[in-house]
Amino acid sequence: MPALEMAQETGKLVSWLRREGDTVAKGQPLLDIETDKAVLEVASPADGVLAGIKVPSGTDVPVGQTITWIIAPGEQVPIDAALTRTGRMSAVTHIATNSTKPATDSSRAVATRISPKARRLAAEHSVELANVRGSGPDGEILASDILAIAHKAATVSVTNPLSTVARLVAERTTQSWTTVPHFFVVREVDAGKLRDEHDKLAATVHNSYAVKLTYTDLLVALVARVLANHPRLNSSWTEAGIRENPNVNIAIAMALEDGVVAPVIQKANQIGIPKIALQRHQLVEKANTGKLHPIDLSGGTFTISNLGMLGVDAFSAVIVPPQVAILAVGRVADRVVPVDGHPAIRPTIKLTLSSDHRVVDGAHVAKFLHDLANAIEDPSAWLV
Questions:
Q1: Among 7-11, 179-183, 189-193, 317-321, whose mean pLDDT is lowest?
Q2: Regarding the domain delimited by 164-381, which CATH topology (the fold level of the hierarchy) does it fall under?
Q3: Neighbours of 319 (CB within 10 A)
Q4: Cβ of 289: how many Cβ atoms within 10 Å?
Q5: Cα(222)–Cα(271) distance, rounded to whole angstroms?
Q6: What are the backbone angles phi and psi of residue 214, rounded to the nearest 5°?
């Protein structure tokens, strides 16, 4: 089991993409693994034959544990790889009934007395025998013991059990909200020229890479360029102090069925709109198909979360530690605003910046939003 993220202890083997006995080539997709952040595709590290699969799909496996072998044609797999799940159970049973050594937890569970009917019911109701205390003579597990546990389990209804990704999102959001001192600053910005810039560049982007230009693409470029002049907002909080990041890497929050991921566009202040649109499009496709790689999720220094396409006017987002800030973006909408002392209808966009008060204060944030507002109101001057 490979370590695909820092501090990763286990990985869930979601599915095998090749069957035992298949010939595989180095770099060919081999299996899908679910980590704390996403489901990632793992490629074969070598050419050979897939043999001795030890771990079935759906299993959580410690990092470093052998899950299969890739062998040369005609080569034999190591002896322990040949043990099937039945073979493993038979070996444990043999130890439990014949060994003179003290019983281990696993051998004690196998040696437990249980009636045939109780064993059948345990299999039907997916009851783990190691957790059952028998009420029969000498602790024998009876059918009534199994039925009591099954009935108790049936009364607990879990409508939506959390996936690994959803559980980690919940834990990290809670940790951020309870340990990072958030404060929020809102700015409404005229988006007339941003809309014009979008319309002007849409055809260029489509002709270059056959992808659709979005307002998020323009905001990634503008935010990244403004951040280059505000290194405090592009820094990270560490226990040792504030670390200013050398690159401006913009993470884009993307909603999945069971959580949120934030793949990263590296050095976004140094690349043009067409390439940003292409990279964002590719990351969205990877996220939707569970094909994100660790490098796609690494190195973010600032996050943008845009819900404008869903009709949201404004919202506040939770910071992604160790980042210092996250920008929440609402929709571009026509609103009545004062122009030269008179009411007028103008397209505007509402920005809400959530910031870590340990690193930045109101003045830092106000200056950043001032420059970002200027960039949005005159994007062509920033996108040359």
A1: 7-11
A2: Chloramphenicol Acetyltransferase (3.30.559)
A3: 20
A4: 10
A5: 11
A6: -120, 165
What are the boundaries of each domain within the chain? 10-82, 113-157, 164-381
Please report how many Cα atoms fall inside a 13 Å half-sphere around the Cα of residue 334, on the Cβ side.
Answer: 3
Residue type, 52: G
Structure tokens belonging to residue 372: 């970002």
242: which strand partners? 237
How does pLDDT run across 115-157, given as a tens digit for each residue? 778 888 888 888 887 778 888 887 888 888 888 888 777 665 5
Active-site residue (options: 281, 357, 364, 370) = 357
Q: Give Cα 80 distance to the centre of its chain.
A: 34
Domain 10-82 fold: OB fold (Dihydrolipoamide Acetyltransferase, E2P) (2.40.50)
Give the residue, 216 or 78, on which the prediction is more confident: 216
> Following DSSP, what letter does each residue of 107-152 receive, concatenated?
HHHHH--B-HHHHHHHHHTT--GGG----SGGG-B-HHHHHHHHHH
Specify whether 357 is catalytic: yes
* The predicted structure's pLDDT at residue 87: 37
Q: Which CATH number fits domain 113-157: 2.40.30.10, 2.60.40.10, 3.40.50.300, 4.10.320.10?
A: 4.10.320.10
Please say if the pLDDT value at position 97 is more than 50. Answer: no
Calculate the CA dihedral of residues 225, 219, 369, 189 and round it to 10 degrees: 140
The answer to whether 1 touches 67, Cβ cutoff 8 Å, is yes
DSSP 98: H
Distance CA 195, CA 309 (A): 14
Q: Is 10 helix (H, G, I), strand (E, B) or coil?
A: strand
Say if CB 347 and CB 191 are below 8 A apart.
yes
> pLDDT tens digit string along 54-94?
888 888 888 888 899 899 988 888 765 444 433 333 332 23
Give strand pairing partners of 338.
Answer: 343
The dihedral region occupied by 210, where left means phi > 0, alpha psi between -120 and 50, and beta the remainder, is left
